[in-house]
Every structure is written in structure tokens, then in C-alpha cells.
């Protein structure tokens, strides 16, 4: 690893990590835009992940629920990158994860739920679009209904995830911006940084004086703002970065 990078991040006490689908691919969860990504292999799948389409048609909802019924995330385990971030926290470094992922692997790796902001929601909970009642997704899937209805009011159920055309939770986004602005080191890991407003957290951090390190296989729109850009294997390089912080 670049000695200048090690010198720059050694001893960082406030770290924010914006994580995207790329951090979970080593756990067996496909990303969205990569060579084997969900959108790459099945471009039409985007339709089922668009709020307007989801709400308008039962056929779209059935396609959506089929996509999650046997999703790889149900069987996935945290990988070395997830664990390295959790171990930084155990070592006494102030770590906050701002994740675009909905898989819950950061929490399973050992980070307390309060230290993980799920910007795009969680696949582990389901909510009624009518009465807003919430349910564990496993209970909804166990009913084996292709287009499940709310047990309380009969309304349309939707995973507690943000779909295209749906706004992020304002409180969560506000917390994320506060965390980004307070960080000394901001890691953007495994994110294409093409989805806003989550990607703009990089700008919030840099403007506040943080060191931005982008770790991603492909170029991103924020590479020019980064102090360092790493095109290395995420599962290998994130533990190295975390180890460098505590040297």
C-alpha cells in the first residue's frame, strides 16, 4: 500500500465509510452495474425497482417479490471488509457506516445498529404502503404469496427499501451529512457513486476537510475529489486500510 496513503490515514479517530454493493460481492451478493450485475444481466429488472411501476401493477410486484424470495443476501455472511470496519470500532476508533446496501451485513459483522445508517433501507423489514405497519420480511415471505397484502389493512406491502423515484428518509440523510462533515477520514467503498444524494456525501466530507479515499473497481464521478483512489480487491484492501489506521 502507498506509504503516503498510510501516513495520511494513520491515527484517524473519526472515520465514516460510505459502502455500496461492491463491498458485499465477496459475500456472494451480486452488485447492480458490474459485468454480472443485476441491471447488466436483466435490464428490465429496473422496472420492478421503480416505485411508480411497483405501486401500479400486480405483475411488477410479483416480479419484485420473486427477486427477493431467494435473494443471495438471505444466505450471505459478512466478509473480511465488513469485519475490518467492525474491528476498527472494537479498537476504539469512532466509526460510522453510511451504507447504500440493504443486506444488514455490517450489523452482522459486529457493528452496533446505531452505528450503521441504512440510507436505502433494509430488506429485513417490510412495510405497508397504506397503514405503515411494519413486519419482519421473513414472515411475509413465509406466507408464500406472490403479491402479499398487509395483514392489518389489506394494503400493498413493500420491502423497507428505497426504490427509484422514492425519496430518502430526510432524518437519515441529515444524520449522514452530519457524520460525513465530522469525519476526518471518509472511505467510499464499493459504490459506483452514481446514485444521489448518497454519493454527494463525499462532497460534504471533502468540503469539511476530510481525506476522501475511493475504493472501487471502476471509475466514479468523485474520483477527482479523492485524495487517493484504489482499484484493488475490496475484501483485501479494506482490512489493510483499517490496519493502517491503528498502526
UniProtKB/TrEMBL annotation:
Its EC number is 2.3.1.286. The lineage of its organism: Bacteria, Bacillati, Actinomycetota, Actinomycetes, Pseudonocardiales. Zn(2+) binds at residues 128, 131, 150, 153. GO terms for molecular function: histone deacetylase activity, NAD-dependent; metal ion binding; NAD+ binding. It holds the Pfam family SIR2. The keyword Zinc applies. CDD domains: SIR2-fam (cd01407). The active site is at 120 (proton acceptor). Residues 1-247 form the Deacetylase sirtuin-type domain. The keyword Zinc applies. InterPro entries: DHS-like_NAD/FAD-binding_dom, NAD-dep_sirtuin_deacylases, Sirtuin, Sirtuin_cat_small_dom_sf, Ssirtuin_cat_dom. It comes from Amycolatopsis tolypomycina. This is protein acetyllysine N-acetyltransferase. Keywords: Metal-binding, NAD, Transferase, Zinc.
